[in-house]
Amino acid sequence: MSEPALRYTDVSLTDGQSARWAGAMTTPMMLAVATRLAATRPAAIEIVSPVTLQQCVARGENPWQRIELLRERCPGIVLRAAVALLTEHGKRGTDVISTEVATLWLRELAQRGVSEIVLIDPMVAIERIAPVLKEAKALGLTTIIALPLTQESTRSDDDLRAQAAALARMGAGRLMLRDEAGLLTTDRLTTLLPALRAGLGATPLDLHLRCQTALGPMVALEAARIGIDGLDTAFAPLANGASVPALGTLLKSLRMLSSETSISAQILHAVGEADRLLAELADRHGFGPAQAWVFDLAPYAHQLPGEVAAQFMQRLAALRLAHKLHSFANECARVRSDIGAPPMLAPFARPIAEQALLHLQGRPRYAEIRPGVRRALQQVYGTTSGAVDARLAQRLGALPKTLAPSVASLRAAYPEASDAALVLGQTCGVAPEAVPTPASPEILRYVATTPADALLAGLTARAARYAQLGVQGPGVAIQLQGTEA
Amino acid sequence: MLEHLKALVAAETARTGERRTIHLNDDTLRDGQQCLWATRMRTEDMLPIAERLDRAGFLSMQTIALVQFDASVLFLNQDPFERIRLLRERITRTPMRGAVRSNLMRGFFPVADDITELFVERQIANGIRDIAVFDALLCSDNLASSIRTARRLGANVTLGLGYNIAPGYDDALYASKAREGVERFGVQTVALGDAAGILTIDRVRTIVPALKQAIGDKRLEFNTHCLTGLGPLLAIEAAVHGADTILTAVDPLANGNSLPASQMIARNLREIGFDVVVDDRLLDEVGEYLGALAGRERQPIGVPAEYEPSHYITQYAGGAMSNLESQLKLAGIADKLPAVLEEIGRVRMELGSPIMVTPYPAIVAAQAVMNVLNSERYKVVPDEVKKYVCGYFGALPLPVDSNVKDRVLANGSKDIALTPPVIAPVLPELRQRYKDLGDDELLLRYMYGDEKINALAHTAAGDNFSVHHPIVDLVAGLAKRQSKARMQISGDGFSLSAN
C-alpha cells in the first residue's frame, strides 16, 4: 500500500471540543462517538490534554477511567495525550511540574494504553524538557515535542530553526510546530517549513494549527502540499474557528488538487458519518453550530490561543464590546509586553486576556492585577524572554522559591491516594482525596437528553437551594418547589 | 501579517506625506441581499434604513441592477422604478448607483441600443447618479451606448471588469481594458469584480497595482465575495496595494456568498493606518435592523465560509451547476456528469475562456454535452454556440481555437448568418403600441409583459415600519414619554399598565 496522502491525528475530543463546545463533552458522549471516530483510521486520536483533564475533574468525572474506556473503544488506534509542564491553577509549588511528577503522569498514561505524547513546555526550556523526554522514551512512548510558533518579528525563522535543531539533538521522536493562535500564512509557511526541516534533519515535523483567522484550512493544504509529516485535524462540528481544520474538507480538497488516490471513498464516507454523529450531538445538546470565523487582523495582535480566544470573543460580544476588538487586541499585546512577553499559551494567555479586558472596561491600568499576571510577573514559571515592567515587578516584590514536592512526600502526605490521584492533584490543583471516583457503567451510558431535560435534572438536584423557582422560555415552562435541606 | 501590512501603509504615508483615505461603497441593498436572500428584499423593508445608510459616509450606494428589476417585478410585484424614487427621497447625500448588464436585458440576448439607452435614461431620471456597466466578454463596443447615455445625462460611469481565471486573462489584459475605459469612454471609476470570490492573495498583489497604474488618477474600486472565506483579507490587501474603494455589505448581510462586511473592513483598514470615513455606530444600527428583518422574513444571514479550493477549479456558479445536474438527470444521462464537467473545461478554453457568468455557462455546457454524447467533438453544434463564435454577443476577448471555429461554422445551423444582423430599433413600435404610457411603464411592459405589470402593487412607504413585535415597539414608545402619569391600555386578549 502506498503512503497515505496525509498522516492526520484527531483532536476532536480535546482541543476541538474545548474550543468549539467550551469543553462540554462528557465521558458518556465521548464513549458514544469513539467507535465512529476510530473508523476514520487516523494516525492517532488525542484523548486527553491538560485542559480536558481539568474540565473532566471539575465535572466530577474520573479522567483515568475515561482513558481506559476510550482505549477499549478504539482497538488498534494509537492514543495520544498532551502533557504540559506548566500548570494554570496557581497552587504554589506546582506551577512547574517536576520531572518526577511528570514521569508519574507519563507512567499512568502508558499503563492505560496511551503510546504517544505531545510534550509542551511553552517556554521551550531545554533543561525541563530533556529529563522528561528521557523518561518518556524509557516508558516506550513516542514523544512529540511542541515548538510554539511565534510571529516573525518576535522570533525569526532562523531562531525557530535553531530551537528545532536543539530539540531534535535532544532526541525528540517528532517535532510539532504549534500555531495555537492561527497566525500562520502561506507566505510564512514557505520560508519557515524549509528552515525547520534544515534544523531537524530526519526528525519528522508535525503541524498543529488553529483557524482564528480563517486561513487555517488554506495553510494546512499548503503544508500538505509542500510536505508535512503529520497534521492535527478535527471533525467538522468541532473544527474551524478557534479549533483546527476540518478533516473531511481537507481530504476532499487534497483529493481534488492532487488526484490523490490513496484517500479512499470508504474513509471519506467514515469521516462523513463521524461528522454527522457529532452534528446530531451538538444539535441535541444545544452546542454551537459548526461555523468558520471571519478573517480579521485582530488575532495577529492579541495572539490568543484556541479556547481562550473563543471565550474572550464571546465575552466581548456579551459585553457589547465586539466593536472594540482591535483595542482589546492591542491591550493584550501591551499587557503581554509589560510582563516580559511570555508565549501566548497556558498559563499566560488567559490572565493576559483577563487583564486586558479589565483595562478595556475602563479600570485604571493595573489597579487590579489578575493572579495569573501576578505569577508571570514574579517569574514563577521561569524567566521570560522580554523585560518585565520594573514598576510592576517592584510593586509585587519577589516570591521566595517554593520547592516542588517530591513524590515520596506526596505519598506520605496522602497515604490513601493512588499515584493516579496524586498526578491529578498536582496537574489540576485539587486535593488528591477530592479526585472523582470511577463511575458505574449505568452512569457512563450515554442517554440522549434535550437541554430542557438536562436543565430540569440539574434544577431538581439542587432543590435544597431554593424555595420556589420558575423558568420560562420558548416551548419551556418549569415551576419547581424547593425541598428542605 | 499585521505588522507587515502596517509597515507597507506607513511607508506609503511617509512617501506621500498623508494618510490615504479608503472609501467604502455600500452594496447591501443590491448584491448583499442578492447573494443571501435570492434578491427577495422588499422596497418597504429598505426604507427604514435608507436615511441612516445615507448618513453613514459611503462614497456611493449600489441600489439596483437587472437582477433586482427581475426579482422586484416577477416575485415581489413591486415597481423597481418606484424603489429607486422612494430610496432617492431618503438618500440625498450619497450618489445611488444602478448597474447595466451590457446590452443584454431579460433573455440574455443582445437587444437594440435604443432600449438599452432608455433603460439607462429612466434609471437616471428616477434618481440614479452613477451607472455601472459590465460586459462579461470585456467587449467595450457592447457598452458604448450605455456609457454615452449616462454621460449625456451627467451621471458618473463605473466600468466593471469581471475577474476570470483562464489563460490569457493576465494583468496586461485587464490593464488594457481599464485603460480603454478611461481613454475611450472617460469613465470615472474602474471596478475589478470578482463575482465567484476566486481571486487569490498573490494575484491581488499584482493585478491591483497593474490596474491602478493603467487608470492614473481615476478611482479603482475592488469587489470580491467571501465564498472561500478569504474575501476580507483580499479586500485589505487590495487597499494596501492601491485600491481606492472597497465594495462592502453591512454585517449581517455580509460574508458567506456575500461581500466582506463594512464594519469589519472599516475597523481593520483603520488599524493598519488608513482613514475610513464611515460611521460605525450607524452601521451597527443598520446591521441590527437587518438581523431582525432576516429573522422576521426567515431569510439567512451571512455565515462565514470555510476555505475550500474547489471554487477556483470549477468557477461554475452554484446555480449553474445545479441546473446542469438536473438537465442531465432529465435526459437520463446523470452518470455522464464527470465527463461533461471535464469537457466543459476543454470547450471553455477552446471558445476563448469566457467569464462564467450568464449566459456563457449554459452555452459552454450545451456544447460539452453534445461532445460527450456524440462520437465526434463539435459534430453537433447548438445554435447559441455558433452565434457566440460568429460574434452575435460581441467581439470575443480571446480568439476561438481555429480548428474548433472551422468545425463550428461547418457543422452549425446554416440558418445562422456568419455576420450578425444589425439589430433593429424597437422603440418606435413600442411607442406606437403604448401610446398613452410613460417611459418607465413602457420599458417595464417591454421587459416583463403586460400581465406582470398590471399586477404591480404600490409600496406602503412608512418609515416607522419596525421589525419588532408591535408590543415591544409600544412599550419602547411609552418608555420614551416624558409624562410620569399612569398608563392603562387594553385590547383584544391584551392589557398593559405602566407607572
Give a written overview of the molecule.
The complex is a heterodimer of chains A (485) and B (499). Chain A has 485 residues and is of the alpha/beta class. Chain A is built from 21 helices and 10 strands. In chain A, helix 6 links the parallel strand 4 and strand 5. Chain A is globular and about 65 Å long. In chain B, helix 8 packs parallel to helix 9 (201-215). Chain B folds into 3 domains: 2-297, Aldolase class I (TIM Barrel); 316-411, Cyclin A, domain 1; 468-499, no CATH class. Chain B starts with a helix and ends with a strand. With 499 residues, chain B is α/β, with parallel strands linked by helices. Chain B contains 22 helices and 10 strands. Chain B has helices at residues 2-16, 28-37, 43-55, 66-74, 80-90, 113-126, 144-152, 171-185, 201-215, 231-240, 262-271, 280-297, 310-314, 318-330, 337-350, 360-373, 383-389, 402-411, 427-433, 439-448, 450-454, 470-480; strands spanning 23-26, 61-64, 96-101, 130-134, 156-162, 189-193, 219-223, 245-248, 487-491, 494-498. Chain A binds chain B through residues 151, 153, 183, 185-187, 214-218, 221, 240, 246, 249, 252-253, 256-257, 291-298, 300-301, 323, 325-326, and chain B through 1-3, 5, 201, 228-233, 236, 255, 261, 263-264, 267-268, 270-272, 280, 284, 303-310, 313.
